[in-house]
Amino acid sequence: MDWQTLATQLFGSNHGIRRDGDFLHGDVVFDGQPLAVIGTTDHAPIGVQLALTQARAVLDMLAQHPGRPLLLLIDTQGQQLRRRDELLGINRAMAHLGMCLDLARRRGHRVLGLVYDQALSGGFITSGLMADACDALPEAEIRVMRLPAMARVTKLPEALLAELSESNPVFAPGVRNYVAMGGVRRLWEGDLAQALRQALADAPTDDQRAADGAARGGRKLAARVIHQVLAAD
What we know:
Blueprint: H1 3-11, E1 18-20, E2 23-30, E3 33-40, E4 44-46, H2 48-64, E5 70-79, H3 83-88, H4 90-106, E6 111-120, H5 121-125, E7 133-136, E8 141-143, H6 147-154, H7 158-165, H8 175-181, H9 192-201, H10 209-216, H11 222-232
């Protein structure tokens, strides 16, 4: 689904969300209450400029609209693979964006992520996975690493990883596998406005992803390991 269709279904034709290049931003009214919207479109690569632009928008919201909920609309191919961005410190720019979102959460802003098209690697980690909860449309595509790249990193045969991906969501791309692992809380189906209404109403205040992954059978050990580490402290 393109961002304009999504925005119209959620907020009506006069939604007020604007596009500047690959950057989406605006303040909308939902159920009579203001809601900030920040996002990306056209499978945007997240480079230094786009990461800092999003971070600036988050900081402006913190300064001008304390407590306002934030919806992140996510469509990204991941970090910008360009020498210029590497030399400028893309890792620090993306970490800055993630910290700004974390600061918003700590200051009482409900931060929701919605993957409406594509979410890959670092561009997803520093946006949707930094939210209180990240949801997705059923047709969205989510992955952090393709199997060929995973084979190069792990030194395992790609055929073995492909076999493992059939039974273990950790090795497999796809939005439903991320639901199973707990990275995506739920899929928005049917009435999208009602799905947003529910997401705002029951956004968690603590990180439930490991517990969700264990309950859904997608990440069986993460919650147990976290518990053991905390108990050891």
